[in-house]
Design a protein that fits this description.
about 400 residues; 2 strands; two-stranded antiparallel sheet; single chain
Length: about 400
């Protein structure tokens, strides 16, 4: 499935995952801060005020009892009324703190303990009221009796308040421990989310680098090879994403270029093969012509040698030659003309005798070595014509023998 995902889809999945992870980390942070704030708020607004209120109520109850003891010592004096009034003021302060405590939210267990403490408070206050009445009546026996009852009621109130304070302390400790557990849980979850985000980012980087960088480097290598004229490297397509489509297009381009080059090379090879065939035909034609020219030269040399063996014929005037010689000269002249037409037909110079000078078929004068002045000593007037034809045949033979070498080069 990984190879079927496109790069756009991988980027979208990576960004969506990292965004969701970022939102989760932010939500965890907000939740953790919210729980911590709630814990601090509960400590500040409930637990601490409750403990303070209970402690102050108990303290002012103890001070009320202490004022009662002083009033009992001052029984029958003028200071008793002020002392009793002070005792009532202490009760009012204790009631105010207890009312503040009772206004705070309380769980069921705490509510039960608070009710027990309230009952003991009321019992203590009743004993104090009875003792103050005995003090105002200056009844020492009643004062002593109510003082003993007050001591019992105060001890019971102290026990109830101690249970309530213990509960409040335990509740505060449990709240702290719960807050710590939540803090540790949120911290571990946040660290795990951060580690997961780092791992996801690293995986996305490696995956995208493998999906983009490596195929891109391979494509650049193929482009450099194609630019250098190397079409032998196969294009490997390992994925079906955008880079795979790019490599697929590169493979098609390479195949098209390879087909074009093969077609051009095939046409070139065909042309070279045709040229080689034509050169072979030319060589055979040139060899055939060279053999014919050599044969004609040999015949001309044989005719010259035959004429040179009859020196007396050159000394005779041209008009006194025998019929056999005239027939031979006519045959040689006809042979020379046939050889000239056969072997000098393709733009080769043909000798034409015009008023004592020799010219080729274009009207150019033949070089002086073939003039009658230099040919005068060669077998008479007919020998000069044979010498010219022999020289041309020899030159043609040399050119014909050099032509195959030029064709091979």
């Amino acid at each position: 499935m990984k190879k079927a995902l496109t790069i756009k889809a991988r980027l979208g999945i990576s960004m969506a995952f990292l965004g969701a992870l970022l939102i989760a980390i932010g939500a965890l942070g907000l939740a953790g801060m919210g729980h911590s704030n709630d814990a601090f708020l509960a400590t500040h607004s409930v637990q601490m005020p409750a403990a303070i209120a209970v402690g102050n109520a108990e303290m002012y109850a103890a001070r009320e009892r202490l004022v009662f003891d002083r009033a009992a010592l001052l029984a029958g004096t003028s200071e008793v009324a002020a002392t009793v009034e002070r005792s009532r003021m202490m009760r009012g302060r204790a009631d105010a703190y207890w009312k503040e405590y009772m206004a705070l939210p309380q769980p069921p267990e705490e509510k039960r303990l608070a009710d027990v403490a309230q009952e003991k408070r009321l019992a203590l206050q009743g004993s104090v009221d009875n003792g103050i009445a005995a003090i105002m009546a200056n009844d020492h026996d009643a004062i002593i009796t109510h003082a003993k009852a007050m001591q019992v009621a105060y001890n019971e109130l102290a026990i109830a308040n101690e249970a309530l304070r213990k509960f409040l302390t335990e509740a505060s400790r449990q709240s702290y421990e719960e807050t710590q557990r939540r803090f540790l849980w949120f911290r571990a979850l946040s660290l795990a989310a951060v580690a997961l985000g780092l791992a996801a980012a690293a995986f996305a980087w490696v995956s995208l680098r493998r999906a983009i960088s490596r195929p891109l480097e391979a494509a650049l290598g193929h482009f450099e090879a194609i630019a250098a004229g190397d079409l032998r490297r196969e294009v490997a397509i390992t994925s079906r994403d955008e880079m795979g489509l790019l490599l697929e297009g590169l493979a098609k381009m390479r195949a098209s270029l390879l087909a074009t080059v093969r077609s051009a090379l095939g046409q070139r090879i065909d042309r070279l093969r045709d040229a080689a065939d034509r050169r072979g035909q030319h060589r055979s034609v040139l060899a055939h012509r060279t053999a014919g020219v050599r044969l004609a030269g040999n015949r001309l040399e044989h005719g010259r040698a035959h004429r040179n063996r009859a020196p007396e014929r050159r000394k005779r005037p041209a008009g006194e030659r025998t019929g056999r010689e005239r027939v031979g000269n006519r045959g040689q002249g006809q042979f020379g003309r046939d050889a000239g037409r056969r072997y000098h037909g393709r733009n080769q110079p043909q000798l034409v005798e015009d008023r004592g000078h020799h010219h080729d078929h274009r009207g150019h004068r033949v070089p002086d070595q073939y003039s009658r002045a230099q040919c005068g000593g060669r077998s008479g007037a007919g020998g000069c014509g044979f010498a010219v034809v022999a020289g041309e045949v020899r030159s043609l033979a040399q050119r014909s023998s050099a032509a195959p070498r030029k064709s091979r080069n």
